[in-house]
UniProtKB/TrEMBL annotation:
Protein name: AcrR family transcriptional regulator
Record-annotated DNA-binding residue ranges: 33-52
Keywords: DNA-binding, Transcription, Transcription regulation
Domain of life: Bacteria
Domain (HTH tetR-type) ranges: 10-70
Keyword DNA-binding: yes
GO molecular function: DNA-binding transcription factor activity; transcription cis-regulatory region binding
Native source organism of the sequence: Microlunatus parietis
């Protein structure tokens, strides 16, 4: 029998998000129900409907929450003083987030079954865009900002997915030093030399 997750009055929405993430981590996105989340939270099966229209809406809230957390991690990683404007550190923070929050990350980047939302995702991507705009203003980008945004995001996301998927070449030796070396090499084409 799984333990109930206590919640304080007024925080059921947050509790349901956290419980759903735990259920997704153990059963997958398709392997949990709103009723199961309610049971785990210690409330009636009808209680979640005061906060969410259904499972898709709850998954959308999990994605929003994940993007907000990712944006905070990315903002923390930004270093204007770094020669690359913090681009490698942003990529590392992206992968670190995916490793630390695999269930949220999965929901964030799989729109199937969830209510689509874009503002939180765009805000997270905007952190990267801000760094690239700054590099562009300093004459450091070797390509247009829009191209650099897509290239940088694709590289970081690809590494995160390979790592989460357990691909041997990435997951077996996954030291922070090796990640930094890989991202430094991959992102070199985005930047002009000093």
């Amino acid at each position: 029998m799984e333990a109930k997750v206590p919640y304080h009055h007024g925080s059921l929405r947050r509790t349901l998000i956290d419980v759903a993430v735990e259920l997704i981590a153990s059963h997958g996105v398709d392997g949990f129900t709103l009723a199961e989340a309610a049971k785990r939270a210690g409330v009636s099966a009808a209680a979640p409907y005061r906060h969410f229209a259904g499972k898709a809406d709850l998954l959308g809230a999990i994605a929003d929450d994940g993007f907000e957390r990712l944006a905070a991690d990315l903002r923390e990683a930004v270093s204007e003083q770094a020669p690359d404007g913090g681009l490698v550190d942003l990529a590392l923070a992206y992968v670190d987030f995916s490793v630390r929050e695999p269930a949220r990350f999965t929901v964030m980047f799989d729109a199937g079954g969830r209510a689509p939302r874009s503002n939180a995702g765009l805000a997270a991507l905007g952190v990267l865009g801000g760094v690239l705009e700054s590099l562009h203003a300093r004459g450091r980008l070797a390509m247009p900002v829009d191209t650099a945004l897509r290239a940088t995001w694709s590289l970081a996301h690809g590494m995160a997915v390979l790592r989460l998927g357990g691909m041997r070449t990435i997951a077996e030796e996954d030291s922070p030093q090796l990640r930094r070396q890989v991202f430094t090499a991959m992102l070199a084409g985005v930047l002009r030399p000093d």
